[in-house]
Every structure is written in C-alpha cells, then in structure tokens.
Specification:
single chain; mainly alpha; globular
Length: 244
C-alpha cells in the first residue's frame, strides 16, 4: 500500500487550492502526530497559507485559467521530452545510447526550465530548441524525437503569444508568484507522502490504511476530472485546426 501519484502541476489554481485544502483537513482528522508528520505538516501549512493569499489576489485580477493551462502544457511537454531522452540513455542500441547522452548534456546545461520565471522559461525553451536543431540534428534524427521538439516549441510560442496579448505586466507577476508558491506547496506535500509511504514500510499498513485509502480516493477523483478536461481541450484544438 502507498499513496498514489497525482499531476499537481496540471491542476488549475482553484483545483490545486481545493485539493490541498482537502488534504489538510484529512491530515487534521487523522492528526499529524498519529501519522508521524508533525514537522512536515507544519511546514506545509505555512506554505499553503501563502498560496491561499496569492489565490485571493489572483481572483481579483484578470488572470484566467487559460494562462495556467497554457503554461502547464509546455511544462508537461518539456518533462515528456526530458523523460524520453533519459530513457534512451539506457537504450540497448549503442548508437541510440550515445546520441541520447549527448543530448542529455544539453538538457543538463539548461536545467529544469519549468521552475524558471515565465520570461526565463520562454527564453530557455527557445534557446534549447534552437541549439538542438542547429547542433544536434543527427542525434535528434537517431532518437526520433523531432516531434517532441516541435511540440515544445509550439507550446512555447502559444504561451508567449497569450501572455503578450492578454495580460498586463502586473498580472503576470502575480501569476508568477502563484507558480512559485504552488511549487513550494507541492514539494511540501510530496515530502509528506514520501514520509508516510516510508513509514508504512517500516511500521506496517494498519496505522495508515484508512488515511491512505481516503487520500487515494480523492487523488483518483481529481485525476479523472483532469483527464476529462484535458480530453475536452484536445478535442477543441482538433476542431480549430480543422477549421483553418
């Protein structure tokens, strides 16, 4: 038994806040002491308070879920591309393995771009894609990941166009703050879940079973709703493309 994974970065701001609100209430019901997470939950509570304050500011501004979705999409594509390269570093074919390791050096140079500010991430992705296309065309061909790179660039262009055309500089700063505090809250949440999963191995399931079952049910509900929304968005994109 263990706590399931959830793609927190793809939740909209209100969904994200609601999920962690429910998680917090669940921990309080079972008590941090009984779960063995007193210190970790205290850290989480402090960070989650920052998220609540930032969400309150956002709800008074013109920022909409569209910007959140657009940023999450390019983050998701970057992670998928990075994972594909990392996996190919262990490929059975030596040529593929060598190509992947050369590309991995470039990815390491740019780091985890999803944690950068909006402007920094946009610039980093543009530079990364340009470098890969110009200097690593052979490796990209061997690895068969040109579609990943094209998709990442398209996502980045779409985000940049959206933020330039629809949002003021002040609004963008507030949304950037939300992205940062959300990351901090998510890291605190994962610290707690990793600790509980470890404690289950050490102490057995009995003391944590009801908590894990209830939390996993909540995770499943949010994951299902997310899948439905993303599927709906994908269908809308197909319609738009078809109309052009």
């Amino acid at each position: 038994m263990e706590i399931a994974n959830i793609s927190l970065s793809r939740l909209r701001n209100e969904e994200h806040n609601e999920f962690h609100d429910g998680f917090s209430d669940l921990v309080i019901d079972f008590t941090p002491v009984a779960l063995g997470i007193e210190t970790q939950f205290s850290d989480f509570t402090l960070l989650f308070g920052n998220e609540k304050e930032t969400l309150h500011i956002l709800q008074k501004s013109e920022i909409t879920d569209e910007l959140v979705d657009c940023d999450a999409l390019r983050d998701f594509t970057f992670r998928g591309f990075s994972d594909s390269i990392k996996s190919s570093c262990n490929h059975f074919r030596n040529e593929t393995k060598k190509a992947a390791k050369r590309v991995q050096i470039v990815l390491d140079e740019y780091g985890n771009v999803v944690e950068k500010s909006y402007d920094q991430e946009t610039t980093a992705i543009n530079n990364l894609v340009s470098k890969l296309k110009q200097d690593y065309a052979a490796e990209i061909s061997i690895l068969g990941v040109s579609e990943w790179i094209d998709e990442l660039l398209a996502n980045n262009v779409a985000f940049n166009t959206l933020i330039k055309n629809r949002y003021t500089q002040e609004s963008a700063k507030t949304q950037l703050l939300m992205k940062r505090v959300r990351t901090e809250v998510d890291n605190a949440f994962r610290t707690i879940t990793k600790r509980i999963n470890a404690l289950i191995i050490v102490n057995g399931e009995e003391a944590y079973e009801k908590f894990v079952i209830e939390l996993n049910n909540r995770i499943e509900n949010y994951t299902d709703n997310l899948a439905i929304r993303l599927g709906h968005n994908a269908k809308k994109t197909e319609v738009v493309v078809g109309e052009k």
